[in-house]
Amino acid sequence: MTDVLLCVGNSMMGDDGAGPLLAQMCAENPQGNWRVIDGGSAPENDVVAIRELRPTRLLIVDATDMGLNPGEMRIVDPDDIAEMFLILSMAMTDLLTGMPNSRGFYRSGEKRFAWLKEHKKDLSLLYFSIDNLKSINELLGNKEGDEVVKIFASNMTKCLKDQDIAARLSGGEFAVLLANTPTHNADAFLFDLQSRIDAIDHLSGKNYHINYSHGIIENGGDKYTTLRGMLEDCDKVMYSEKRRR
């Protein structure tokens, strides 16, 4: 029997850090059979893992402004919470890969983008497209194409660090928002991803390789007011690079 505590919030954004702080405290002082998951600012990334655990009880902690006076409490029907979580997770999650979809990306990504911009942190936005997905679907079938998408998504997810946000936007298109550090930036991410895809291609025994294009915009916090606007230009950069090939 497993009970899951999902703590939601951004430790760098005031009261929103209550969730991650609780996760840290529970990890330091384990209680019973509770499995603690720090969902950070993108809890939709943990939906697949939670479903696989099939918990007896799921407790979600997310600090938010509920319009109550200090000390007041509001009791919410557990069935409503479960239904809200299920609806939200399904609405924000790409069912094929388990990654956030475009709605999930904007929901968590805009908050992260605003924080990085406010604190003048270097950031990178990457846009990816699997070049040969259409031909794989046409020649080998959609099942094979879905497998390529899942492999690409899985290896992309393995390249992420804390607070990075990635999503499958549509078909074979993906986006990643990174906070640049000396050891983790766009170049390091691209190298890690390419190394993983090369290894997959080498070991798969398939008669095709997974080919993809990417576009990058770095340090766009000064130019763009929203993540959506930055992503639109990043998309254009990628397709411009594609045409030059």
Structure notes:
The protein is α/β, with parallel strands linked by helices. The protein is 46% helix and 19% strand. The chain contains eight helices and seven strands, in the order βαβαβααβααββαβα. It has helices at 18-28, 47-53, 78-92, 102-118, 133-140, 142-158, 186-204, 227-244, and strands at 3-8, 34-40, 57-62, 123-130, 165-170, 173-179, 212-218. A four-stranded antiparallel sheet has the order 5-6-4-7, with helices on both faces. β5 (165-170) and β6 (173-179) form a beta hairpin. The chain is globular and about 60 Å long. The mean pLDDT is 83.
Task: Describe the structure concisely for a colleague.
With 245 residues, the protein is of the alpha/beta class.
- Tell me the series of helices and strands, N- to C-terminal: EHEHEHHEHHEEHEH
Pick out the low-confidence regions: none
Oligomeric state, counting identical vs distinct chains? single chain
Structural class: alpha/beta
Mean pLDDT: 83
Q: Which sequence of strands runs across the widest sheet?
A: 5-6-4-7
Count of DSSP strands? 7
Biggest sheet record: 4 strands, antiparallel
Figure out the total of helices. Answer: 8
Share in β-strands: 15-25%
Percent range of helical residues: 40-55%
Rg from Cα: 20 Å
Shape: globular
Distance between the termini: 55 Å
